[in-house]
Write a structure and sequence with these properties.
Length: 314
């Protein structure tokens, strides 16, 4: 009997605590609200987006500094050790799972000069591969702008992101990766910088600005780089190709074309030098126009004609 009474009391207590928790979670908003009233803030950290940012072995010092700049921009980012290039990229999904991250930015360096950047939604996808060009880190630029570390940025997109479906997909990925979650423990409750992403010449230009005044005055902070999309995959680092850039040319091919142009330039210079030398050798054997007078016919008449011609010219 005593055990039954104790069990009933415990059930009543549990029911009371559950009802109290339900009442606390439900926030009933009034039907009429003034515009001056502050909006009720969400105390809970609902958006649990975490981004894993790391690189492969083979990235240069400039690429490493760019990676550190991006980690500073994202308070919800996590860093990891460098990955061996021999390993399959599908291993990155397991690394994200171990770090409790659902987004990933991977810096893949080649030959200490070329940089490829992967943006992935782990583990289901999609994922995008970019070729990074015109890299300028915030330390290199030495700009006057400055912003608070961990502040939530405003994301500004070009109108061309709405024109094509692959750009709209990229915009959604950028929003989920670069958008700092509300009430994140490491974030600050300030909005003092703008991340601008614009499309020009089939490339995405990344710029970071500080908001100086309420009037809209801004100053660039850095970093600064250009992303050229190569492919969009259905899965995370694998799967079907959803879109491929038809205008993409590999950096190695561009270097080879430049080398070929220089080769042609050298060959043309060589031909011109040879022609100049032959011209100089033949110069003393050329006949002067005055000597033509004494070749054939009457020399006096030809001399008179030549003098009259020179007088008309003067």
């Amino acid at each position: 009997m005593k055990l039954l009474k104790m069990a009933k009391k415990n059930l009543k207590r549990k029911q009371k605590t559950e009802v109290a928790k339900e009442d606390e979670s439900k926030v009933i908003l009034p039907l009429v609200r003034r515009s001056d009233e502050p909006v009720t803030k969400k105390v809970k950290w609902i958006n649990r987006e975490r981004v894993l940012v790391f690189g492969t072995r083979g990235i240069s010092f400039q690429h490493r500094h760019l990676m550190k700049d991006i980690i500073k921009l994202l308070p919800h980012a996590k860093s990891a050790n460098k990955m061996e290039r021999k390993e399959n990229l599908f291993v990155v999904n397991e690394m994200c799972k171990m770090s409790h991250c659902n987004k990933c930015i991977l810096f893949d360096g080649r030959l200490q000069r070329d940089l490829y950047m992967w943006f992935s939604n782990s583990p289901d996808g999609p994922s995008v591969k970019f070729n990074v060009e015109s890299i300028f880190t915030s330390a290199e630029l030495k700009l006057t702008g400055n912003c608070l570390k961990g502040s939530r940025p405003l994301l500004s997109f070009d109108s061309s992101f709405d024109e094509h479906p692959h750009y709209s997909l990229l915009r959604e990925m950028f929003v989920q990766i670069f958008g700092v979650p509300d009430h994140h423990p490491k974030s600050q409750p300030f909005v003092d910088n703008v991340l601008n992403l614009s499309v020009l010449d089939n490339r995405i230009w990344f710029r970071n600005y500080q908001i100086l005044d309420e009037n809209g005055a801004i100053a660039e902070i850095g970093p600064r780089f250009v992303l050229q999309p190569i492919r969009i995959f259905k899965g995370s680092f694998c799967g079907e190709t959803l879109w491929e850039n038809p205008f993409y040319v590999t950096p190695a091919k561009t270097r080879r074309l430049l080398k070929d142009n220089k080769k042609d330039k050298y060959a043309n210079n060589k031909i011109q030098r040879k022609a100049k030398k032959t011209k100089e050798l033949l110069a003393p054997f050329r006949v002067k126009p005055e000597n033509e007078i004494f070749r054939d016919g009457n020399a006096k008449e030809k001399a008179k004609h030549f003098i009259a011609k020179n007088k008309k010219a003067f």
